[in-house]
Specification:
It is built from two helices and 28 strands. The chain has about 325 residues and is mainly beta.
């Protein structure tokens, strides 16, 4: 009987939870600070909230008409900021879905970031005509004019604008490979790096915000020191990278990407390289991958407890992966 038992196929471990609440390509997946809620946005404009442990959908935030590009949630999980291509940034009450604030920018909004303390929101607007990409900082309690405006006058479109630790800096990344740090009070650029050769589509902080990782279509992801904006490690992949995440528990980084959507029709799911790939954070070597998506991964984030991660793909699916116990015994 022991031989028969050993012949029995081991159950498929680490089955992901598949969330189908979007009818278009995912643009952003985001956990709240506690890791129990998951927020997702897609190009068809829908913003959803889910329980992250079992993938039950709690509700949607209705009001915007354009593609929803990015989402950020406050420290206490009571407010939600969203960026949308209908030229508006919005602030919602998480629990009720009520729209609290609406900031009209006059051009597509690519990113929003809530400052530590939840008193301010940085809104990144796309270039339009002669105007470059612009960060406008708003007070969350007053609906009036922005308290500060930062013009990104280095030409290229900016993809992300995120508050750094203690709101001392705003980090941005651009479509020509730049990673920059700005002083939000003086409105000046303090550090400028051009380690990437192509579009840097995403930057993501580690849990303690001491480091951040950039993801670029030049097939590399770079780990930076937040304060000095100096590169620490580089992870080289064999595919364009759209998003990367730093595990808060293990010395791992996870990258996601794949061939761009317009080239995908000619390839099978395997050769398009749509897996989530794990790299060792210190040694920079690839240690494994998890397949699943049928198109490029557009956004990836680790749960703050480090026990699961979520990917959002061009195929319209969100996949929540809860790690097996064996994963945590990896060297």
């Amino acid at each position: 009987s022991s031989r028969a038992a050993s012949k029995k196929k081991k159950p498929d471990t680490m089955r992901p939870i598949l969330l189908k609440g979007h009818d278009g390509p995912l643009t952003c997946v985001k956990y709240n600070r506690d890791g129990d809620l998951l927020f997702t946005t897609c190009r068809r404009g829908r913003i959803c909230m889910w329980y992250s442990d079992d993938g039950e959908r709690i509700g949607t935030y209705n009001g915007g008409s354009g593609a929803a590009m990015y989402v950020d949630v406050s420290f206490g999980s009571d407010k939600l900021a969203t960026a949308s291509m209908d030229q508006c940034a919005r602030l919602w009450e998480v629990e009720t879905g009520q729209e609290l604030r609406k900031w009209e920018m006059g051009t597509g909004v690519r990113c929003v970031s809530i400052a530590t303390g939840d008193k301010r929101v940085a809104v990144l607007a796309d270039p339009w005509g002669e105007e470059p990409s612009t960060i406008k900082i708003f007070d969350t309690s007053a609906n009036e004019k922005p308290v500060q405006v930062l013009k990104m006058d280095h030409g290229a479109r900016v993809n992300r604008a995120l508050w750094g630790p203690l709101n001392r800096q705003i980090l941005t990344c651009t479509e020509n490979g730049g990673v920059l740090s700005w002083d939000p009070d003086a409105g000046e650029c303090t550090h400028e790096r051009d380690d990437h050769e192509a579009n840097v589509s995403d930057i993501t902080f580690s849990l303690d915000q001491m480091t951040f990782i950039s993801a670029s279509t030049d097939q590399s992801a770079i780990l930076y020191d937040t304060t000095t904006v100096e590169p620490i490690k580089t992870y080289k992949a064999d595919r364009p990278i759209n998003s990367a995440a730093i595990s808060p528990l293990m010395d791992h980084v996870i990258i996601g990407g794949g061939q761009s959507a317009d080239k995908v029709t000619t390839t099978a799911g395997r050769s398009g390289k749509f897996q989530s790939v794990f790299f060792h954070k210190i040694f920079e070597n690839e240690i494994g991958s998890i397949k699943g998506h049928f198109g490029p991964i557009n956004s990836i984030m680790c749960n703050p407890d480090g026990r699961s991660f979520t990917t959002g793909g061009e195929d319209g699916y969100v996949r929540i992966h809860h790690f097996d116990p064996e994963y945590f015994s990896l060297e």
